[in-house]
Design a protein that fits this description.
Elements: E1 2-7, H1 15-30, E2 33-37, H2 41-45, E3 49-52, H3 81-91, E4 96-101, H4 103-114, E5 119-123, H5 139-160, E6 163-168, H6 175-183, E7 188-190, H7 198-210, E8 216-221, E9 233-238, E10 244-246, H8 249-261, E11 265-269, H9 281-299, E12 305-310, E13 313-318, H10 319-323, H11 331-340
Parallel strand pairs: 1-2, 1-4, 4-5, 6-8, 6-11, 7-8
Antiparallel strand pairs: 2-3, 9-10, 12-13
Helix pairs in contact: 1-9, 5-6, 7-8
This protein binds 6-O-phosphono-beta-D-fructofuranose.
Residues 10, 102, 125-127, 169-171, 222, 245-246, 275 line the site of 6-O-phosphono-beta-D-fructofuranose.
């Protein structure tokens, strides 16, 4: 078969691992040929691609980012977009498409699959918010990066008797904040699934100062709602899928804490560092397992389906099911946060 791959949406450590494994198995086991469209769906619309061979994928599974580059392009919103995609796939004699992306990219994959295009998906996002999969690749790396940063904030906050608020990514889901906050020993962990109770946050920090620890670490997810303010955005612009650019709650919360407690407070926004650099061993392995499953899905003609991790197995579900709603933290995870907090 002649198979095309693309990577859409925000990049994510482990994308290259998926590409590597799908291409390697496709060529060696099935005798497939591959191309990679550049810049996500944009490259399909513009007919921009590179060949993917055993030679040019050699060693990429170790590397971060995506050799295919990425963009946030919503084909559904572009007049004639679907027809253009159909035409480009036909011109290039593409038998099947593997789209690596989060819920936005997969909404396009589903749309194309429903319109007669042979397409399957692989769930990519550091946010870990895709339904039906136990974990998306990239999440483990983001949590490792955030945890290491929080470890470092402890020593500087301690030296200066300060509170430091660390803002992490995750959009409307608190997975990164929950995992890195708990792993990094934060005194306060704030996730978007729960209302921020500012008095409780201040009480937790005061507890530290009253009990011989003259500093505090707060981890806050970028998508949390600040009382009376709501979500904090870095810019008024929204992307082609209608998402606001969330950024700045760490700084806003830091000012509020300082005002209410009198403790000197600083904020750090980890931003895109969480998506950069090499993937962890876990993400390299998970990415390659997703890639192997994706090329098998192609040969089994499982159009409109997406690879998922269920327990120890990589299997697949419909894309419709995967993107029906975001996977968010629930009571089980709130309990972990609560049980590890100071009793105030
Ligand atoms: O979806 C992944 C993600 O990193 C979110 O956590 C974050 O809100 C967003 O992408 C940032 O997007 P951009 O790279 O377009 O600023």
């Amino acid at each position: 078969m002649r198979v095309a791959l693309l990577t859409g949406g925000g990049d994510c450590p482990g994308l290259n691992a998926v590409i590597y494994a799908a291409v390697r198995k496709g060529i060696q086991t099935y005798g497939d040929e591959f191309i990679g469209f550049l810049n996500g769906w944009r490259g399909v619309l513009d007919n921009q691609f590179i060949p993917l061979t055993l030679e040019n994928i050699d060693g990429i599974q170790l590397k971060g980012g995506t050799i295919l580059h990425s963009s946030r392009t919503n084909v559904k919103k572009i007049p004639g977009g679907i027809e253009k995609v159909q035409e480009v796939l036909k011109t290039n004699k593409i038998d099947a498409l593997i789209a690596l992306g989060g819920d936005d990219t997969q909404s396009v994959t589903l749309y194309l699959a429903e319109n007669g295009i042979n397409a399957v998906g692989v769930p990519k996002t550091i946010d870990n918010d895709i339904s039906g999969t136990d974990q998306t690749f990239g999440f483990d790396t983001a949590v490792m990066i955030a945890t290491e940063a929080i470890d470092r904030l402890h020593t500087t906050a301690d030296s200066h008797n300060r509170v430091i608020v660390c803002e992490v990514m995750g959009r409307d889901a608190g997975w990164i904040a929950y995992a890195s906050g708990i792993a990094g020993g934060a005194h306060v962990v704030l996730v978007p699934e729960q209302e921020i109770d500012i008095d409780h946050v201040c009480a937790l920090l005061k507890y530290n100062y009253d009990h011989g620890k003259h500093y505090g670490i707060v981890v806050v997810a970028e998508g949390c709602h600040l009382p009376e303010v709501g979500q904090v955005v870095g810019s008024k612009e929204v992307d082609s899928f209608g998402h606001a650019r969330l950024s700045g709650i760490g700084e806003a919360l830091s000012s509020l804490i300082e005002k209410k407690t009198g403790f000197e407070t600083r904020s750090v926004n980890l931003g895109h560092t969480q998506r950069g650099g090499v993937p962890t061993a876990y993400d390299r392995l998970l990415g390659q397992r997703y890639g192997l499953h994706a090329i098998d899905m192609v040969h089994e003609k499982k159009w409109g389906r997406i690879a998922v991790l269920k327990g120890l197995d990589v299997t697949d579900i419909t894309i419709k099911e995967a993107i029906a709603q975001n996977r968010r933290l629930d009571q089980r995870f709130f309990n972990v946060i609560k049980d590890l907090e100071a009793k105030v």
